[in-house]
Backbone:
């Protein structure tokens, strides 16, 4: 485990200061939304599975900050963070999670299928690795259309166990597609650690063996993530083809649902505690606070704004209408 | 995910009569079957994502790794296609794998190994190799699982020669059918239903086998035959019980395996009732409902007094949201309404 | 492999009447459809293993790379699952891929992307994205192709919501249906049959569309309705012609698409004949035959004068050897015998 | 391209001399059988697809020579060579190819499904990469049964494009399975060269990235193949786990059917001619002839014996009975 503070505190490098504060704000917003979802989940108003990203905010925020709104992001089942980092509409997300007709997927998707085409949140899959070929196809389309569009696809380390990811790396490298394969390695698949799933291979080198640039970054450090993503996105935009980024992260909560399940024994509680010391939100706050970019009162205001936005969005969702029986039969086929 | 709470518990099941065994929860019955199979035959092994984790596949695999060792009960990479092929290859070479999946949707990743390989190796090599393999999965439903996490795929596989498909509806059958499936020398798919996992039932303690390919009467009646399996038959029984006071006397056949299909019991019942309602947990089109409906038109046409009906899922992907799910899935009321129509 | 020589040429087809077009070989009709689609719409592209090689997918893709460039007509890695997903992703982002396979058996590798993704993206995201994609494959048969290279998989896919399935039987329809499939905003499977590839037929030169979901009468009659598609309907026509002199007057319906299914034409015909024989190139169980047979029992029961019959493949994997193939596949004689039984 | 002669002629190393002659005999036998199949194919008595291995004899022979009869071989559609090299019954093979009831698969398999359990020819698949997981499962069985059994699986380079091979490499490395992944890289998949299929990756290094030993050998040199296979098999037998071997070879004939189809233009005729100069059969003959292990008359006798065996087997096949209708329905299910 690398230490977030150790690196970050030495300065923010060439990064724009307002931008750094904005990165913090985005991470904080995701954290607070996730916590609120978690807090409310037991009320059974959100009849949808949830896969919280608490602890993993830096990857979505850092990578999406390197994308333009016209660039596309694809994600796995663990999609809350990417959706919000890409600029997805919070109200539409919460309506979806409350199974309301005005949800971002009209209540047909649920929490694993958050989309917002207006901001380039383009697709997800509840099937491990399922969105990787979809994103690769989106990159092929961008290239064929000569569109100035880069695609980023997020997936967990378990997705690399599915052969289709190997196929996609080959195809993207072959066609020099404008895509960033962003692997969030949190070392677990549901309650399975790496040992019973992967031979002792290095994921970044495994990817590189498919003939594309590949790199490992500290996924708890939003600036490291941003820098790597920025370079990869720039390369893709210039026609330089795909890249692979392995970001090492940790989820604090259970794979699915609310709360932590470490006490069931599948992972050491001390492990989570050690990672929590590297917390992507609070450590980065210390960095920007220390360098004077933000003050405690400013943070308080920020927290307040997030609270207000969030509570309003929850209320909006709860007040929204359910879909009707007629809705069930809509959009089985596209007409036209 | 509390997919089951509230939704499932609200269903009222027949009280089990504890004469022939203990009352056990459904997953415990499966757990016993695996335990017995692992204990009786050292060729049996259990693999699948998370079979040794604290959730233990709904509890079905709880304690088995501790008892039989990590070599015989093991977690796998998230790689369904290769693991299906690995299971097949191991089965062809003297082992008897039980490959467990959380959801049938994930088996779609392995259709090449299942359909192009496992189902036909025995045929292709003229009976030289056998594939004694069980592929187990629990059909999802509810709590927003949605289009990629709720599918029942028995209809997609029904037409594939060489496969067997088992769909239990009680803890008793879950144990006895799984033991038969593991003892069978062919690739057998066992599709459980998550809503049954909350059910308790009487389960004999010892080893016993419920034969594959044999249906059973869950209710005798004279007006109408309802045939199906798994959770669908649960609903059908409830509907039948509800209609009895109205003087509608349904016969309910739990097929237990949809491939091979017990045609004899269907014919016997139809000879009595002349009316057929087929129920299934999956899409009506081109699947179990269609096959049984077509069989009636083909083989038992002269027994039929009226049109065959089917109740399953409409030709629509599974929606995620709760309200939509209520419209999507058949329930006791809707089944009852169709029965009334048929008996009018 | 000379799978076609001798076997296919021995079949006699109706002579085409050259009034409305040129007489073209079947693959050339497909080639024209692709050519027109590529020419009319720059979003269309063609991919698949060997689409630009000298064999040119039975000739169907001949010359297209030269005309439209290597970016729009290209060979792929041997990686069906990812290429299905890539096609889906491209379709969701403004392109219109035509993904061609030598054999449907290879599509089984891509069922996850096809069934779990392509078929339901439009539904799952509430109609926001569309998947205008064509997945094309030629059903194999004969010359020892065997269990892994001869499968017709329409029955496995029939129940999957969101898909369309097209099965042409003439060069005319092959062109017109493919143009409709490419213009459609949904994932459309086009299953050709290798034995039809040797057929010549009248094909108009310009663009034209044969609508999806509309069957056509290939023969009018009063005694019996035969319904099916693709090569099966070819055989049915021949059987019907053979029986005409015996005074058996069959109606032959070429469904052309098995999903969506033209129920109106089936009902219309059954109202006239009261007897139904369903034919298909695939397994009878749980597939196209079963669905149509069940529909008859369900919706048109009161029109039926006798049992429905189905002719397709038995519940057996495809054998490889020539002698076994003769027993396995339906032929004109066997179809004729069933018709005689039905009209007795 | 490496030159077979250049290496081999410097001596046969520590290889047993009779063994070298035997390797030559096995390659020659396969070559002659293939040529005879090809010669007769147009008579349409063999109503089965064929995938000739002419030019690729050294891989099957070299690798199978490192296996014991109790070890298992799995193969792809291009199975004639492996079947014969593993000791498969020639008569049963030719009966199968003539669709006869006494074929090694009772006429249900055809040329792509040659099996002979008595000698460890354990399985094939007509699906590219299809037998790789089957073989991996066989290796798992061997390990679980603590059997002294090593598995070799043959596949073409196109199989590495199927993600399932990546999955199998991971699983085999994870479980340290006794298996040799033997990739025959002949640079073509049907009529497609590498360029439209694979990014410029090195197959041996791609495999190595899955955490298992991997090596490239000259597949035209039977001793090189044997040495590599022997080491890999020994490692597997000792519990050292899987290995990957990429053997570079060339097929002289069309992908399927009789004759060469280079004139259709998908590959340069000069390319084939250059590879033919490295012919695995004739170059090795020169080596063993030069070192005095074999003489021209001895070879003549060898040729004669092969001819006699072969012609008898063809006649036997042609004289054998077709399967009956009852046979069609046998073995859909195993009973018992
Ligand atoms: C094909 C498939 N297999 C299994 C699952 C069940 N499943 C859901 S999430 C998950 C864990 C995936 O782990 P990873 O990709 O590392 O992502 P993380 O949850 O750690 O973010 C699994 C196995 C699935 N959804 N799809
Ligand atoms: C899954 C699948 N896709 C496509 C094919 C069609 N096909 C048959 S052989 C072949 C070429 C395979 O090339 P390679 O693996 O390199 O083996 P080679 O023929 O060169 O020995 C292909 C693509 C197939 N059999 N299976
Ligand atoms: Mg993970
Ligand atoms: Mg090759």
Residues:
């Amino acid at each position: 485990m690398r230490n977030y503070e150790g690196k970050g505190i030495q300065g923010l490098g060439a990064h724009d200061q307002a931008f750094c504060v904005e990165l913090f704000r985005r991470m904080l917003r995701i954290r607070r939304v996730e916590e609120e979802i978690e807090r409310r989940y037991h009320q059974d108003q959100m009849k949808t599975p949830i896969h919280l990203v608490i602890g993993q905010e830096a990857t979505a925020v850092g990578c999406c900050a390197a994308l333009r709104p016209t660039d596309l992001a694809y994600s796995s089942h663990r999609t809350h963070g990417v959706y919000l980092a890409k600029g997805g509409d919070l109200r539409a997300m919460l309506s979806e999670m409350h199974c309301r007709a005005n949800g971002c997927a009209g209540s047909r998707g649920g929490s694993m299928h958050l989309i917002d085409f207006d901001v380039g949140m383009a697709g997800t899959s509840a099937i491990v690795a399922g969105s990787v070929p979809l994103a690769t196809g989106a990159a092929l389309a961008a290239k064929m259309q000569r569109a100035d569009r880069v695609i980023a696809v997020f997936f967990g380390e378990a997705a690399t166990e599915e052969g289709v990811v190997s196929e996609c790396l080959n195809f993207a490298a072959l066609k020099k597609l404008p895509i960033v394969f962003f692997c969030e390695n949190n070392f677990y698949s549901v309650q399975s650690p790496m040992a019973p799933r992967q031979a002792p291979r290095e994921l970044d080198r495994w990817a590189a063996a498919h003939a594309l640039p590949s790199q490992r970054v500290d996924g708890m450090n939003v600036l490291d993530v941003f820098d790597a993503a920025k370079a990869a996105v720039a390369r893709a935009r210039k026609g330089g083809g795909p890249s692979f980024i392995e970001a090492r992260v940790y989820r604090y909560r259970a794979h699915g649902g609310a709360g932590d399940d470490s006490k069931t024994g599948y992972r050491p509680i001390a492990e989570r505690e050690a990672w929590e010391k590297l917390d992507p939100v609070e450590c980065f706050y210390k960095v920007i606070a220390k360098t004077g970019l933000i003050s405690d009162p400013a943070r308080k205001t920020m927290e307040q704004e997030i609270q207000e936005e969030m509570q309003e969005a929850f209320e909006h969702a709860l007040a929204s209408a359910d879909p009707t029986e007629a809705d069930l039969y809509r959009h089985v086929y596209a007409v036209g | 995910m509390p997919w089951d709470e509230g939704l499932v518990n609200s269903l009222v099941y027949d009280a089990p009569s504890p004469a022939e065994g203990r009352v056990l929860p459904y997953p415990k019955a499966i757990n016993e079957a695996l335990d017995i199979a692992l204990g009786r035959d050292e060729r049996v092994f259990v693999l699948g994502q998370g079979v040794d984790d604290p959730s233990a596949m709904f509890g079905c695999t709880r304690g088995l790794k501790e008892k039989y060792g990590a070599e015989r009960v093991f977690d796998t990479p998230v790689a369904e296609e290769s693991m299906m092929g690995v299971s097949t290859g191991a089965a062809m070479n003297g082992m008897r794998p039980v490959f467990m999946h959380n959801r049938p949707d994930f088996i779609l990743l392995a259709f090449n190994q299942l359909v192009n390989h496992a189902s036909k190796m025995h045929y292709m090599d003229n009976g030289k190799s056998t594939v004694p393999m069980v592929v187990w999965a629990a059909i999802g439903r509810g709590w927003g699982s949605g289009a990629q996490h709720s599918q029942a795929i028995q209809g997609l596989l029904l037409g594939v020669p060489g496969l067997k498909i088992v769909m239990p509806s009680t803890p008793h059958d879950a144990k006895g059918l799984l033991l038969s499936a593991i003892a069978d020398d062919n690739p057998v798919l066992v599709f459980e239903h998550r809503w049954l996992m909350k059910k308790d039932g009487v389960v004999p303690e010892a080893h016993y086998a419920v034969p594959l390919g044999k249906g059973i009467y869950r209710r005798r009646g004279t007006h109408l035959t309802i045939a199906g399996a798994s959770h669908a038959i649960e609903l059908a029984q409830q509907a039948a019980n509800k209609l009895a006071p109205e003087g509608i006397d349904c016969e309910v056949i739990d097929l237990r395996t949809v491939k091979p299909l017990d045609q004899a019991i269907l014919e016997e019942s139809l000879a009595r009732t002349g009316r057929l309602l087929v129920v299934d947990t999956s899409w009506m089109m081109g699947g179990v409902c269609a096959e049984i409906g077509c069989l009636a038109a083909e083989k038992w046409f002269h027994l039929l007094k009226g049109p065959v009906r089917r109740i399953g899922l409409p030709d629509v992907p599974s929606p995620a949201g709760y309200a939509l799910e209520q419209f999507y899935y058949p329930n006791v009321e809707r089944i009852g309404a169709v029965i009334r129509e048929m008996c009018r």
